[in-house]
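Hi there, hope your week has been kind to you so far. No rush at all, and the record is pasted right below.
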Amino acid sequence: MSSSATTATPPVAPAAARPHHHRSPWPTFAIASVAVFLVSVDATVLYAAFPALRAAFADATAADLSWVLNAYTVVYAAMLVPAGRLADLYGRKRVFTTGVAIFLLASLGCGLAGTVGLLVAMRALQAVGAALLLPASLSIVLAAFPISRRAIAVSAWGAVSGVAAAFGPSAGAWLIERGGWPWAFFINLPIGGLALLFGLRRLPESRNPDNAAPLDVVGVLLLIVGVGAIAYGLVRSEALGWASAWVSGAIVLGIAALALFVAWAKRAPAPAIDLALFDERSYRFVNAFAMMFFTFFFYMTEVWHLSLPEAGLRIVPGPLLVVPSSIVSGRIAAKIGHKALLVGGNLLFAAGGLWYLLVPGTEVAYWSHWFPGMVMTGVATGMVMPSLAAAAVARLHAKHFGIGGAVNQAVRQVGTVLGVALTVVLIGHPSPTLAEFRQVFGAEIALALLAALLCAPVDTRPRR
C-alpha cells in the first residue's frame, strides 16, 4: 500500500498500484503481519487445546467439539472473499482494524464461554474478525511493495505463520497446562492489542472504488451450507455409520449447495467468489492444495502419552524450519517462478508423510523416529504455502489484490474444514490406535501427490 492516502480523483491510479519506493515498506509489512501471527497462533494453540476441551466438556462428543474448529473455518472461508472486496472498497486499514477489534472481542467471549454452544457461537464471530483482517493484511503487504519484490514479501508474510506455528504449540500448551483451555483464546488479547494500536496509528489508508459491489448474501449462505453440511456428514459418520440417512443426507445437501453456488456465481453480478479469477491458469491450479491436519498433537499425547507442554516443545522445530525455507523460496520464486517450489515441496511433504507412515511406533523415539519427518514436512511447508499465496496473485491486477488474495485463502480454508473433519473421524475419539494414525498419514501422502500433479501447470516465471 502507498505510504500516503489514496487520491480518488481520476486519472490518478489507486494507491495500491503506485507504492512509494523512496520509503521502506517493511514497517507497513511488520504491522500487517502481526495480524497473520495472531490468526496463526490462534489456530495452532487450539489444536493443542483440543484434548483439554475434551476433558473440560466431558459430556460433548468429539464430533460436537470438532465444531469449535469447524464453525470458525466454515464461516471464515465463506466470509473471506466478501471481506476482501470490502477491504478494496471501504479501505484496507479500516477493514483491517475493524477485523482485529472483532477478533479480540470474540476471543474474550470464547475464553469466558461456559458451554460448547456458546463457545461455537463465539468462534463463528471470531471467524468474521479473522476474515476481515487477513485479506486486508495481504493486500496491504502487496500494495506496499513493487512488483519485483512481491514474491519475497509474500514469502516473508507466509513465514510469519511459521513463526506463529512454532510459538503457538509450545507457549499455548504451557499456558493451557497451567491456566486451562480458556488461555488458548486469552493469549490473543495482548498480540491483537498491539496490532490494533499500531494499525490505527501507523497504517495509511487506501481503497479501490472500482470494486464497489453489494454483499452476496445468497452466495455466502450457499457456501456456509455446502461446506458445513459436508463437514457435518464426515464427523458424524463414525458414530452413525455411512449408511445413516443423516450422514448421506448431509453430504448430498452439501454437494447440492455447492453446485447451486457455482450456478449462482455464474449469473450473479458480484458473487461471493468470482469464478472468473480461476480463468488465470496459475490461480486455478494453485488453489487445489489446501489441507491441514492437527495429527502431531494427537499422536504425541495419545500414542506416546506425553504431556501437552512436552508435545508442544517437540513440535517447535518443524514450524521453525518454515521460516528460513519460506524466505529462501521467495528469493528463488522471484527468479524462476513458483512451479518448481510447489511441485518439489509437495513431493517432499509426501516423503515426510511416508516417513511417519513407516517409522514411528508406540515407543518414544523423538530424534530418530520423529525429527527427520518433521524436517521434511517443515521445509516442504515453507516451500509450498507461501508459494501458493504468491503464485495465486502473481498475475492479478492491483485492483484485485483484496479479492484475489481472499479467494486463495477461502479455498484453502474449505480444505481445512474437510481435513479437520476427516481427522476427527479417524483419530478424534478417545484412545486412537496406531493403525488409525497411519490412515491419516496415508491420506496426507495421497493429497500431497495430488497437489503436486495439479500444480504442475503453474507458470509464474518473471516476464522479461
Remarks:
- Confidence is low (pLDDT under 50) at residues 1-21, 283-292.
- Residues 23-203+272-455 form a domain with the Growth Hormone; Chain: A; fold (CATH 1.20.1250.20).
- The chain is about 75% helix and 0% strand.
